[in-house]
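Justification of resources, computational component.

The compute hours requested in this renewal are based largely on the per-chain cost of generating structure records like the one below. Each record pairs the submitted sequence with a full structure-token output. That output is archived, and it is also reused by downstream analysis tasks.
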Amino acid sequence: MEKELYRIRLAVENVGQLMEKLVALQVDDRRCCRAVALPAQPTGSEPVYRDADYTCDRVGISDSTLLRCQQRGEIRVAKRTKGKKYFLDSEVEHLRNSYRGSG
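The structure output for this chain reads:
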């Protein structure tokens, strides 16, 4: 009986440790996803446009911060279609690098 209780306690401790690691991984997940670089745009191809939602997520900013960046001239709207703003992918990456201190 004591051996069974010991094994149960040990299993519960292991589960607790695994849960702590899982929570830490979930917290880091978003940062890891942002660290993944997108493939470079091939030369001579059509420009790649990104919408405001993608831009905010990629740079890690809110809609209001994106608007402030536009007003300061840090990024410009490349085109508007059906009420949505689109930015050049290269400008999104430039903003991301400059905003996050990587460039």
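The mean pLDDT is 81. The first helix runs from residue 2 to 35.
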